[in-house]
Amino acid sequence: SVSTDEGDSRHIGPPSGSDVAQARAHVLALIQEVAQEVLGQDAPTLSESMQLNEDTIDSLDLAEMVIILEDKTGMVLDVELVEDVTQLGQLIDIIVVERAKSDVGG
Fold first, then answer.
1. What mean pLDDT is predicted for residues 88-101?
2. How many Å apart are CA 99 and CA 93, to the nearest integer?
3. How far apart are CA 104 and CA 23, in angstroms?
4. What is the mean pLDDT of residues 74-91?
5. Residue 92 has what pLDDT?
6. If DSSP codes are grouped into helix, strand and coil, which group holds residue 11?
7. How far is CA 87 from CA 12, 16, 46, 80, 105, in A?
8. Most buried one in 44, 45, 67, 69, CB count within 10 A?
């Protein structure tokens, strides 16, 4: 018998764990690229657990990075959500959720 599950692109519902991990890794790489643009040689190596503060990425740098991320992705991120971000993983969450919404057409 031949299985047709593999090529079925009509999957509806939450993405699988590996899809989420892949999306998060992609977003982290994108943020790292933007951090290099904004901070130059001072850009730290980013991780999801990194705290955002004056020693890593301050609020002004974060605001500039968000504008660049919006330009690169075509997304508009909720300013109120971004203002409350204290850890890089939170920003990744916001971007992954926004991407999922735009992929679904919402």
1. 92
2. 10
3. 15
4. 93
5. 96
6. coil
7. 30, 24, 11, 15, 28
8. 69
Q: What's the confidence (pLDDT) of residue 102?
A: 77
CB 10 within 8 A of CB 41: no
Q: Whose structure tokens read 């657990």?
A: 49
Contact predicate 77/66, CB 8 Å? yes
Adjacent-strand bridge partners of 87: 51
**Cα distance between residue 8 and residue 28, in whole Å:** 28
pLDDT of residue 8: 47
HSE (CB half, 13 Å, CA atoms) of 5? 2
Q: What does 57-84 look like in DSSP terms, one character per residue?
A: --HHHHHHHHHHHHHHH-----HHHHHT
Burial of 88 from C-beta contacts in 10 A (0-12 / 13-18 / 19+): buried
Average pLDDT, the chain: 86
List, in order, residues 6 or more apart from 15 with CB less than 8 Å away. 23, 100
Report the pLDDT averaged over residues 58-67. Answer: 94
